[in-house]
């Protein structure tokens, strides 16, 4: 310290600069080597992650795992492996892995408090996979916001639905796990009810025979299940008949549309009219004279 005080300030600065320049090539070489090795580790790590994900997918597929479970596990595995890869690369630059994990733990607590909704979505995704209220490929109706569509994927935080007109709806897993929903395609069969009104002047027995014949001729109707025609109510301007039958879930809409169309053709051919709402107006003598 006393020697440094006796030396001129310019000589001290010159000595530090010379020392820095002497050590610069070695430091640059070390830094360049670390960058190259880190890039190599990153490349190999990405390839290894792809291989591991592929092996896990194949193992789950061989075990006949649900597609939603496969997607969820793949998303979780991908995030975890990339986190390990980044910690490994950071350690290569001299950062202590234990310190990194401690910082990540503290950051995780802080972030967890800030993103409780995301954590709820994660837990919701786990519950969906465990309880299985629906699976990939099911058509569901969500009651909270009246969203509906075919489940295309179940991921870490969100579930994606594809609508019949090919739009994608992204729903939080927490919302789906904590609200009521309807799984339209959970069962193999669905009951179909059709209402059709006939005129009060029409022969009810004949109308029932005609509609029963339509049911018997419809190939989508499951003949092993009960199907019949009945009088549902006596309406204001029509006698309302009901048609009840069962269809396979996959054939439900095409069968319903075809059956409804054939009902109209059959009633027309039998001369049975389908009335429309009407109002009878009675005029007083004064109004008639006007």
In CATH terms, what is the fold-level topology of the largest domain? Answer: Helix Hairpins
> Structural class, judged by helices and strands?
alpha+beta
Largest sheet: 5 strands, antiparallel
By CATH, the architecture of the largest domain is named: Orthogonal Bundle
| Multimeric organization | single chain
User: Quick one: overall form?
Assistant: rod-shaped
Sheet-strand content, in percent, reads 15-25%
Q: What portion of residues is helical?
A: 55-70%
Give the terminus-to-terminus CA distance. Answer: 125 Å
Number of helices: 9
Uncertain residue ranges: none
Order of helices and strands, N to C?
HHHHHEEEEHEEHEEHH
Total individual domains: 3
Number of strands: 8
Query: For the record, what CATH class of the largest domain applies?
Result: Mainly Alpha
CA radius of gyration: 36 Å
The overall pLDDT, averaged over residues, is 80
Major β-sheet strand ordering = 4-3-2-1-5
Explain how this protein is built.
The chain is an alpha+beta fold and 290 residues long. The chain folds into three domains: 29-114, Orthogonal Bundle (Helix Hairpins), CATH 1.10.287; 120-183, SH3 type barrels (Roll); 189-269, Alpha-Beta Plaits (2-Layer Sandwich), CATH 3.30.70. Helices cover 56% and strands 18% of the residues. The protein has nine helices and eight strands. It has helices spanning 2-6, 9-62, 67-92, 97-114, 116-131, 173-177, 204-217, 252-269, 285-289, and strands spanning 139-142, 147-154, 158-162, 168-172, 181-183, 189-198, 228-234, 239-248. The strands form two sheets. A five-stranded antiparallel beta sheet has the order 4-3-2-1-5. Strands 6-8-7 form a three-stranded antiparallel beta sheet, covered by helices on one side. Helix 4 (97-114) packs across helix 5 and helix 7 (204-217) crosses helix 8. The longest helix has 54 residues, at 9-62. The protein is rod-shaped. The mean pLDDT is 80.
């Amino acid at each position: 310290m006393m020697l440094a005080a006796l030396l001129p300030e310019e000589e001290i600065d010159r000595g530090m600069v010379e020392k820095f320049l002497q050590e610069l090539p070695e430091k640059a070489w070390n830094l360049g080597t670390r960058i190259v090795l880190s890039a190599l580790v990153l490349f190999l790590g990405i390839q290894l992650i792809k291989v591991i994900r592929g092996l896990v997918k194949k193992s789950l597929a061989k075990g006949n795992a649900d597609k939603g479970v496969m997607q969820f596990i793949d998303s979780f595995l991908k995030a975890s492996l990339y986190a390990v890869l980044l910690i490994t690369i950071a350690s290569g630059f001299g950062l202590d892995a234990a310190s990194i994990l401690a910082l990540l733990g503290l950051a995780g607590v802080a972030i967890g408090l800030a993103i409780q909704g995301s954590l709820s979505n994660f837990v919701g995704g786990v519950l969906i996979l465990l309880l299985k209220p629906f699976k990939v490929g099911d058509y569901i109706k969500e009651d909270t916001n009246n969203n509906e569509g075919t489940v295309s994927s179940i991921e870490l935080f969100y579930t994606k639905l594809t609508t019949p007109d090919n739009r994608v709806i992204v729903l939080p897993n927490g919302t789906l796990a904590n609200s009521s929903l309807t799984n339209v395609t959970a069962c193999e069969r669905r009951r179909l009810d059709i209402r059709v009104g006939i005129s009060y002047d029409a022969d009810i027995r004949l109308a029932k025979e005609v509609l029963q014949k339509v049911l018997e001729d419809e190939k989508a109707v499951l003949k092993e299940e009960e199907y019949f025609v009945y009088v549902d109510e006596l309406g204001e301007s029509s006698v309302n008949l009901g048609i009840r039958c069962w269809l396979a879930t996959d054939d439900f809409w095409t069968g319903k549309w075809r059956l409804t169309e054939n009902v109209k053709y059959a009633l027309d051919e039998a001369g049975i009219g389908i009335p429309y709402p009407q109002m009878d107006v009675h005029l007083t003598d004064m109004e008639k004279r006007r």
